[in-house]
Amino acid sequence: MSSLANIVDAYRIGCDMSLIKLQNVSVEFPIYNASSRSLKNRVLNIATGGTVERRTDGLVIIRGLNDVSFTLRDRDRVGLIGHNGSGKTTLLRVLSGIYTPTQGQAIIQGKCISLININLGIDPEATGRENIRLRSAMMGIHPQQLARILKKIEDFSGLGEFLDMPYRTYSSGMQMRLAFSTSTAVQPEILIMDEWLSTGDEDFKERANERMQELVDSTHILVLASHSRNLIEKNCNRVIWMEHGSVKMDGDPREVLNSYFGK
What is the mean predicted confidence (pLDDT) over 33-40? Predict the structure, then answer.
C-alpha cells in the first residue's frame, strides 16, 4: 500500500462491516443508428441534462455517470438529490449491482437490498405465494431462510386467501402490498431506496411506514434518493447532490440542502 489511507481501507474491506466505495466510476450507454433519430436525440439531450456525446463515427454515447468517487461506511445515511436526468437512478442501479461501471471500480461489501423496483421478478400468471418465492429468489434469499419468514410475509401482506389466486387478478393496491411485504421481509446491511415506499389503505400504510422506519434505523448504510427535503433531513446525515452525471456537492445535509433548495 502506498499510503496509510489505503492500508486503512484494505483493513476495513477485510473486516465484517459494510462498505461502498466508488472510484472514478462512469457509466455509458451507446445508442446505435442515432443519425436517423433526430427527435429522439433532442429528447435524450433534455432527459440526460446534456450528457450526450456524438462521436465522429456517428455513434451517440449517453453518459449516465461521469467520474464519480465517494466512500460510504457503517452508519452513513446518505440523501441523494438532483433534478430529473442528473444521474441519480443510474447511480442507484450501480450501487444495487444492476449496472456495472464502464469505467472505474465499484466495491460493494455487505448484504444489499434495493427497493428501486420491488415488482422485479413478479409473474402475473403465478399465485401470490409463488410470487413470494420468485421475488425472494431475485433478492438472493436462500430457500431455508424463506421457509423461516414465509408466514411473516403472508401475514404482513394481509391478503389471506388471495395468496392462492393469480397475481394478475389483484388490484394495484394488492399487488403493491404483496411486493412490499416480500421486499422488506429481511434486514439488509445496505438499503438502497428511490423515494419512500408507502402503499395501500390507511391500516396497511401505517404498518408499511413503521416497517420502513425500522429498516432505515437498523441498516448499516442507507442511500435514499428523494425530492423531499423533509424526508432527507429526517433520515440522513450526509447529502450528495448529482448534476449531469457528476457529484456537484457532497457533505453536511444542511449545507447541501440549502444550496440545492435555497434557504
Answer: 56
